UniProtKB/TrEMBL annotation:
Pfam families: TetR_N (PF00440). This is DNA-binding transcriptional regulator YbjK. One of its GO terms (molecular function) is DNA-binding transcription factor activity. Keywords: DNA-binding, Transcription, Transcription regulation. The lineage of its organism: Bacteria, Bacillati, Actinomycetota, Actinomycetes, Streptosporangiales.
């Protein structure tokens, strides 16, 4: 039986997919434990109980592995959020559910959240430029912008620039997680409630 495609169009076997998933899980565990700068492929391989060569067989290098870690975590977050957002009928309820939902996910998956934070902060290209900057967040901006535009079209939300609000909301969420990572005793859900209230008040008509 076959599974997802390789870059050249060939399909991977389920065994290959399972091995890739094992390596991704080991990368998450390693980065969360020792930080991105110390998470070499050799160290990730040791966590997985395999040789470094096995990682090199399945991934072109650390950049590709990190890309797949980010995709895996973001996909998991989306799968957590979408059913919760689908239950809401209004744009403001969706805004609130989005902020609260990501906070709830973080509390349930602190290792994954610490890992992507480490990657976003420390992963840089050969010129020293962060590999995950504002452009990497474009899909998040687009989804929030669409939500705001639909709310404005229905008359539920006031007039404002949807792109500016989308960027601001995502920046607030990112800052919330950064603060929580630096101060783990922070009440993350209380922070999320305040943040959600702030954005709901910002977008609804007075």
């Amino acid at each position: 039986m076959q599974s997802k495609n390789e870059p050249d169009g060939q399909k991977r076997s389920f065994i290959e997919e399972a091995r890739r998933a094992q390596i991704i899980a080991a990368a998450v565990q390693t980065i969360a434990s020792v930080g991105f700068p110390k998470a070499s492929l050799a160290r990730i391989a040791a966590t997985a109980g395999i040789s470094k060569g096995v990682i090199s067989y399945h991934f072109a290098g650390k950049d590709e592995l990190m890309d797949q870690v980010v995709v895996t975590v973001y996909t998991d977050i989306a799968e957590h959020l979408l059913p919760r957002l689908a239950e809401k009928d209004t744009a403001t309820d969706i805004v609130r559910a989005h902020v609260m939902g990501v906070a709830e996910y973080a509390l349930a998956n602190p290792e994954r959240m610490r890992t992507i934070t480490e990657i976003f902060v420390h992963d840089r290209d050969a010129e020293g430029v962060p590999r995950y900057g504002a452009l990497a967040a474009e899909p998040l901006y687009e989804s929030l912008e669409t939500l705001y535009r639909e709310g404005q079209a229905s008359g539920e939300l006031r007039a404002f620039d949807p792109r500016v609000m989308a960027v601001t909301q995502q920046a607030g969420i990112d800052a919330m997680f950064g603060y929580w990572m630096a101060r783990p005793d922070t009440d993350l859900l209380a922070h999320a409630r305040e943040l959600a209230d702030l954005f709901v008040r910002a977008v609804r008509p007075d």
